[in-house]
Task: inverse folding
């Protein structure tokens, strides 16, 4: 087949085009395409059929063969997959998304360790022990000092209050504690509601469940702790074991008027620092660690239900509620795709030149995710295109330490150059 | 000849035949004239014998044309006897009329016409049983059927058997079906044949043999034919056959007859074999045959030996003079090439005998040795190297660069939890980095160049030791677990100086840090007299050892943190101490001098082990976490692995570096070790130590990591493994720290 294909550009292959987007559907007729055709030319073909000379060629398309994005010429693809040119190719085309547009760059005083967006608010954890709250359009709403060590992780919990203008969020820090804060948008007021104390190492990851009432933190002390951010469960404290209680009391700083909470639950099993934790559903947490494993925990029964062995230390994981898949960033150049239902890895996405430090799924498209790396690039990936990312987002001048795509049309990256970069994405 | 007189019943036709035949033997036996005459004279003397020796002899010699010889003498004629024998043998249908006296004669001659020479069955020499199913037995000359004579039935047979006294010597002529009674003479002849004696009953079996066709050239040869070529060429096929037989004899496939007989006699198959220990290897002769070494072949003649060599082979005058002047041993060739007009003109090879003699001498004298060739694949001799993929994980590429120092980073140390990395630099600072992000968390200024930073291995304290010139400074960097940090401070503060410290003068001064220093994190300071070149913690974190430059008696000092005491264990160390180490498990103390490593036990008195390093100048050592293996690096760019259980000599020496080694280090958990060198490379090797004592460590170099730039002939100054991950840190003269993952 390969020799045939290389004989000349005269080789043709039969192909049918179809799409699931009904507004762009074209007649189901097989076309004979020269195999040297590239996605751009395919695009022209579809255009010519679709618009038939009408002026407005608004949409451009990406092409999928067997669920994989066509990024090279057809010839290369066919050779790669060892598909005979005799067969009739079924080419699906989807509307191509526009490239992300760099929007704004928000300056910080120190390295940004974590970024999280929520509706119109952006939360940044910094190495200068502060948390910065930004509005969607780039205004610095407030800077929250409070931690005594670099903030390592932030997360949004929920929005409460009348008119949904009270927003709760949590942050974890090197000072071994996590705080829950409340931002009153109308009054521009920040309150510290709870302090979660009990970890004996830096709190490296924090995650809240869907209703924002339960929070898990993972720490360098190899444990995962479950906390409650519920308003009316203060009596929880007394039910905890005495040791952590003492420790918590000891560490309790008198300055704040907040309530110090001890963990509802501590689960241990990781042999190294816990670097990432996500909620899979209301009772299940998946954690990733430097000991090269991901573990799934049932928080109601406080036990480990599953373990996934990796080959490198994990730095970050992200879980997609749409596809129920997990992408992981670890101490190498690859982004890996896991399906917890199977043991095997589902895919490896290699394009970064440095360590991948952050990953996040799109909240609207089950195929898209972003990754940020120490090579200063944020990349937008399609799960169907493992060899090359869709877009590289340049802008960061130093290592990217955190990426976020919680706001569907806004991709965020922050890193060691103290800048928070925003990229607009019309999903 | 003269037997005619004895004939009693001779038919007239036979008479005539005999007269004819009388001459024929004479015709054929003309040649042996002398014998014949003597025979004739005998005959004349003894007529009664009736046997003609010479004629019978003649007939034997000449051929078988006497088969139908009609000497039909019943009693004594040899020829006749011979004839009956031929009848016996069914050779031919012998003349029935002469030799057989028919039982019922009239049958035979029933239709016989007297003038016929012979009454014969004309079917020829074919199996008679072809006529078994017919009434006739053949045809006469006229084509009439010869009807089978009537056969008697079993009763007739029986009656004959009973009545006929000649029944036992009655035979049937198959060709005619007639019964023939054998005469006395016939019987005698049969007996003679049966006893394998001369059928003719000749008395003189040993008459002299007349070799008519002898090898002697006769004046009057029997034939004038020239002798055949084959008669004087030894037979090729015979030779081959003989060769085969000899081979078979040698191999033992064939045995000489005598041996077979002997074996038959000696070996009773039923008798049990008594010789249990008999050597069942092959016999000497077959072994020798199988071990036969062919004589070396003589080289084939070349162009120079030709009778008509090309011009360039012929000697010119100079060459000839040279050849003549040389001793025979020195000559390049032992003959002069010569040209002849034709092959015919080539003279006899004068030195033929000489040459043959030398050849034989060579064969005889030269010891021919059987070379035992071993067909060994050279690749099989190389020990099996495991695949690199199987040895993963190991660091493969640069993962992170820690930038911030302004001068060369001499020393690095990851903290036991693996979250922090401390580094000491020539820019007089100690920095603490977050490993995962390369964030510099703390910068602690010092007063001079930092030569050593080491985290305390004790997990209960958070203590970093740094050596600055002649001081050891213990720092609480205040990173990591707050509880541990505060514990560290409280334990250090809880020390109360005992009054009895001044027994003898301490070689160092312990002092707590000033208020300003305390804020920076400095807790304790131990002032030495000389510059400190090396520092090492004990595995428990209470003791530590320092090496001072110069001062002889106090080169090695052991300090105890909890009691703040110092002792100098060696009054006089042998050699210039380079490094010291505590054994991770046992109370051993390693002292590396320039060329030796001493392992000391029991308050540094008893020397338990003495390692002779195979290098000129030891620069660094490290002990395997298991405690039984040791690697040393030297300034002459070698890395030696010692198995302390095995030998005092290096188990393996690796010479992969181009320049002096600066640091060697083991990984705490993974079977890895790394070496850093001035050539800018960090070489990571797989060094697996088996718990099985029988297995030697497996050492495979897996990766050469480069990244640091060389400045002032210095490149990589330190390398350390991450305590938990398979990562290696290296610090260099280019003021960076690199992490390879």
Result:
């Amino acid at each position: 087949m390969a020799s045939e294909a290389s004989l000349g550009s005269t080789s043709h292959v039969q192909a049918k085009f179809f799409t699931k987007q009904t507004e762009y559907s074209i007649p189901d007729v097989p076309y004979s395409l020269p195999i040297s055709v590239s996605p751009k030319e395919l695009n022209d073909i579809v255009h010519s059929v679709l618009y038939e000379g009408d002026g407005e060629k608004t949409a451009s398309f990406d092409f999928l063969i067997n669920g994989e994005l066509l990024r090279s010429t057809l010839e290369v693809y066919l050779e790669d997959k060892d598909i005979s040119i005799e067969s009739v190719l079924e080419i699906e085309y989807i509307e191509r998304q526009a490239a992300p547009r760099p929007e704004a760059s928000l300056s910080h005083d120190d390295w940004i360790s974590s970024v999280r967006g929520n509706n119109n608010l952006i939360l940044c954890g910094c190495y200068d022990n502060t948390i910065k709250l930004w509005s969607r359009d780039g205004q610095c709403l407030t800077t929250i000092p409070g931690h005594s060590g670099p903030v390592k992780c932030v997360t949004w919990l929920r929005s409460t209050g009348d008119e949904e203008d009270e927003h709760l969020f949590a942050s974890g820090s090197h000072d071994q504690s996590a705080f829950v804060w409340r931002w009153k948008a109308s009054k521009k007021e920040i309150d510290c509601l709870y302090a979660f104390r009990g970890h004996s190492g830096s709190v490296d990851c924090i995650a809240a469940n869907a209703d924002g009432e339960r929070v898990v933190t993972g720490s360098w002390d190899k444990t995962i702790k479950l906390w409650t951010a519920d308003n009316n469960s203060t009596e929880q404290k007394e039910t905890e074991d005495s040791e952590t209680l003492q420790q918590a009391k000891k560490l309790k700083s008198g300055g704040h008027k907040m309530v110090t909470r001890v963990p509802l639950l501590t689960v241990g099993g990781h042999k190294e620092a816990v670097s990432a934790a996500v909620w899979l559903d209301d009772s299940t947490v998946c954690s990733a660690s430097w000991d090269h494993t991901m573990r799934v925990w049932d928080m109601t029964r406080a036990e480990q239900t599953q373990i996934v062995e990796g080959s490198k230390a994990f730095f970050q994981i992200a879980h997609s509620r749409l596809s129920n898949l997990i992408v992981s960033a670890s101490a190498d150049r690859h982004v890996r795709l896991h399906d917890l239902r199977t043991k095997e890895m589902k895919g490896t996405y290699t394009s970064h030149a440095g360590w991948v430090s952050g990953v996040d799924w799109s909240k609207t498209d089950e195929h898209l995710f972003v990754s940020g790396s120490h090579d200063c690039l944020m990349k937008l990936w399609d799960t169907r295109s493992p060899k090359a990312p869709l877009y590289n987002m340049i802008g960061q001048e130093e290592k990217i330490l955190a990426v976020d795509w919680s706001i569907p049309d806004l991709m965020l990256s922050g890193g060691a150059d103290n800048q928070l970069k925003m990229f607009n994405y019309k999903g | 000849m003269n037997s005619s007189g004895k004939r009693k019943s001779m038919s007239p036709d036979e008479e005539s035949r005999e007269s004819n035949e009388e001459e024929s033997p004479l015709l054929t036996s003309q040649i042996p004239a002398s014998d014949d005459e003597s025979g004739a004279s005998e005959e004349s003397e003894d007529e009664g014998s009736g046997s003609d020796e010479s004629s019978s002899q003649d007939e034997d010699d000449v051929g078988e044309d006497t088969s139908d010889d009609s000497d039909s003498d019943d009693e004594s004629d040899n020829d006749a006897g011979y004839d009956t024998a031929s009848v016996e043998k069914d050779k031919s249908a012998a003349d029935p009329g002469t030799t057989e006296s028919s039982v019922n004669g009239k049958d035979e001659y029933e239709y016989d016409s007297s003038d016929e020479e012979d009454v014969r069955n004309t079917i020829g020499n074919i199996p008679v049983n072809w006529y078994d199913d017919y009434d006739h037995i053949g045809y006469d000359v006229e084509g009439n059927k010869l009807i089978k004579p009537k056969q008697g039935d079993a009763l007739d047979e029986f009656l004959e058997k009973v009545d006929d006294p000649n029944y036992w010597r009655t035979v049937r002529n198959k060709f005619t079906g007639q019964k023939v009674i054998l005469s006395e003479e016939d019987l005698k002849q049969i007996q003679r044949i049966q006893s394998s004696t001369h059928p003719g009953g000749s008395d003189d079996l040993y008459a002299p043999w007349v070799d008519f066709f002898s090898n002697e050239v006769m004046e009057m040869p029997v034939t004038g034919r020239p002798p055949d070529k084959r008669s004087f060429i030894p037979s090729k096929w015979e030779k081959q056959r003989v060769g085969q037989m000899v081979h078979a004899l040698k191999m033992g496939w064939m045995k000489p007859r005598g041996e077979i007989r002997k074996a038959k006699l000696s070996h009773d198959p039923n008798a049990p074999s008594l010789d249990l220990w008999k050597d069942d290897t092959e016999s000497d002769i077959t072994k020798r045959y199988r071990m036969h070494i062919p004589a070396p072949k003589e080289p084939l003649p070349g162009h120079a030996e030709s009778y008509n060599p090309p011009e360039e082979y012929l000697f010119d005058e100079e060459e000839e003079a040279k050849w003549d002047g040389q001793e025979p041993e020195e000559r390049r060739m032992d003959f002069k090439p010569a040209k002849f007009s034709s092959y015919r003109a080539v003279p006899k090879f004068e030195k033929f005998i000489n040459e043959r003699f030398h050849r034989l001498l060579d064969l005889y004298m030269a010891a021919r040795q059987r070379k035992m060739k071993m067909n060994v694949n050279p690749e099989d001799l190389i020990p099996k190297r495991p695949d690199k993929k199987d040895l993963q994980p190991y660091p493969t590429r640069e993962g992170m660069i820690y930038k911030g120092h302004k001068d060369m980073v001499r020393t690095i140390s990851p903290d036991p939890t693996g979250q922090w990395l401390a580094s000491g630099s020539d820019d007089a600072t100690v920095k603490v980095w977050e490993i995962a992000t390369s964030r510099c968390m703390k910068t602690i200024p010092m007063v001079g160049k930092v030569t050593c930073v080491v985290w305390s291995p004790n997990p209960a304290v958070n203590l970093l030791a740094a050596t600055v010139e002649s001081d050891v400074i213990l720092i609480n960097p205040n990173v990591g677990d707050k509880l541990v940090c505060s514990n560290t401070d409280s334990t250090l503060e809880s020390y109360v100086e005992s009054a009895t410290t001044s027994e003898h003068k301490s070689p160092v001064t312990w002092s707590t840090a000033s208020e300003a220093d305390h804020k920076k994190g400095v807790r304790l300071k131990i002032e030495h007299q000389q510059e400190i070149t090396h520092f090492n913690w004990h595995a428990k974190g209470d003791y530590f050892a320092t090496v001072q430059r110069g001062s002889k008696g106090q080169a090695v000092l052991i300090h105890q943190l909890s009691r703040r005491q110092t002792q100098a264990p060696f009054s006089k160390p042998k050699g210039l101490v380079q490094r010291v180490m505590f054994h991770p498990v046992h109370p051993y103390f390693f002292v590396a001098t320039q060329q030796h490593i001493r392992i000391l036990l029991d308050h540094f008195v008893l020397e338990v082990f003495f390692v002779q390093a195979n290098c000129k100048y030891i620069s660094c050592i490290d002990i395997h976490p298991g405690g039984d293996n040791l690697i040393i690096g030297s300034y002459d760019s070698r890395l030696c692995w010692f198995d302390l259980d095995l030998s005092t000599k290096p188990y393996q020496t690796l010479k992969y570096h181009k320049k002096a080694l600066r640091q060697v280090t083991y990984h705490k958990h993974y079977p890895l070790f790394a070496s850093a060198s001035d050539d800018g490379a960090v070489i990571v090797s797989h060094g697996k130590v088996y718990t099985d004592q029988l297995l030697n460590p497996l050492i495979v170099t897996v990766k050469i990591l480069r990244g640091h730039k060389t400045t002032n002939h210095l490149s990589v100054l330190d390398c350390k493994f991450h305590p938990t991950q398979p990562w290696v840190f290296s610090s260099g003269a280019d003021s960076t720290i690199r992490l390879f993952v």
Confidence is low (pLDDT under 50) at residues 1-106 of chain B. The longest strand of chain B covers residues 698-706. Residues 12-28 of chain B form the longest helix (17 residues). Chain B has four domains: 1-96+186-220, 102-182, 402-497+504-573, 581-741.
